[in-house]
Amino acid sequence: MTVTASWIAGASVADGAETHHIIDPATGRAVAECALASPADVDAAVAAARAALPEWAGATPAERSAVLATLARLAGEHAEQLVAEEVRQTGKPVRLAAEFDVPGSIDNIDFFAGAARHLEGKATAEYSGDHTSSIRREAVGVVATITPWNYPLQMAVWKVLPALAAGCAVVIKPSELTPLTTLTLARLAREAGLPDGAFNVVTGAGPDVGAALAGHREVDMVTFTGSTAVGRTVMAAAAAQGHRVQLELGGKAPFVVFDDADLDAAIQGAVAAALINTGQDCTAATRAIVATDLYDDFVAGVAEVMGKVVVGDPDDPDTDLGPLISAAHREKVAGMVARAPAEGGRVVTGGVAPERPGWFYLPTLIADVAEQSEVYRDEIFGPVLTVRAFTDDDDALRQANDTEYGLAASAWTRDVYRAQRASREIKAGCVWINDHIPIISEMPHGGVGASGFGKDMSDYSLEEYLTVKHVMSDITGVADKAWHRTVFAKR
Ligand code: NAD
């Protein structure tokens, strides 16, 4: 069994530490043993980052870019290992890990290798007439990062890479359930030439290691991806220290099907967007809102496609749907589905756990859900799609926005004006038209409302890790400056 531990200042640190098991959700069996970081380890990791900062922040953009480009190459060379680790610790199907998680992460590393050389600011100019004003973009400093278990490698890359590209040093705490690929990434970064201490990983649970990091005095910024409830705790801890915060939180994405939509495309798109990563995706389609005329055909079509989804061994390339992350999480999902009928929901398909080891749960469709019902309002984070009908376009957009979340949404229509109206009026960080889920390194990801604030991916995320400094230089060379007379008239 793999034995692993925190990675601090370029070395594995596990002196006499307490350990816990990393469990394969497809079997319930331990696949690795991981030493838990102590409070002293968190301090050491932050100190290592602080020590590494001058060298890394002081490197030229081209030097930083070269190291990150090497990391992208090494990650490509270790793609098989990264896929295997991701499948083992999350239970996700190997096809998803090999075609989405790992190549997407490598592309993102590659993107930030380039972005490191594209610092932006207002043009240097003599705005006052008497001074030259210029903008410096400087690294925020030491960044504390906390990530979830659903896409461990991608979430680490989305946080760590823009921070490194900006010249920051990082301490990341991955989910205690899924630290393996984050640790591999840190090792590869060292091999790529990153200075020791610029990328540290502390392993352990949220309430102790995560809380210690989020509230650490010596970090400059806290960036978090996870649930809305924990995100707010993290923000409070960071606020107590006055640190900059970025939050990527939960979602409850609407999937709006207008009466002129391509129904087959909407049905297929709904199944793919609801079931990706076993529905453990913050942007997953969760609330289908469908025109009355198409409602029955949509429900029947989605149920039929869901019935063909192959649930099973994540290592089998033919498997579509893997298990949920843990027994506790499956219990939560199953409990929400079980309570749905009491609130008016009709379970059309699924709603059961198959008879096999691991924490599998069948694709589930719940129709006729009430607007105030739990499955319609709260994040389920499982392979569950709910459906409601709408009467007219106003009603459709009202329902789409009837949520505290605002991460992602989609509108399905062949009418360009409807599409434009939906993209304008739906409150979300991303609105897809006639698709739902695709992401791309050049474009930002991040929400509004209870889904958080700030951006991952794209040049916008680089901005999160940079400060803006104004340098204003007198160009007159005179002691007696005109503006002094506003303060004192005579010398
Ligand atoms: P979570 O909030 O339970 O945990 C996220 C991380 O926070 C983990 O590393 C955990 O150990 C840590 N943590 C827990 N308690 C903490 C505390 N008190 N102080 C500091 N850290 C603490 O989330 P999860 O169950 O790992 O992931 C699922 C959630 O993540 C869902 O809500 C999902 O929507 C969200 N998510 C959002 C995005 C996005 O981009 N918006 C992406 C992926 C996942």
TrEMBL record:
Protein species of origin: Mycolicibacterium elephantis DSM 44368
Domain Aldehyde dehydrogenase: 17-471
EC number: 1.2.1.19
Keywords: Oxidoreductase
Family: Belongs to the aldehyde dehydrogenase family.
Active site residues according to the UniProt entry: 248
The protein's enzyme class: oxidoreductase
One annotated GO molecular function: aminobutyraldehyde dehydrogenase (NAD+) activity
Keyword Oxidoreductase carried by entry: yes
Protein name: Gamma-aminobutyraldehyde dehydrogenase
PANTHER family for this protein: ALDEHYDE DEHYDROGENASE-RELATED (PTHR11699)
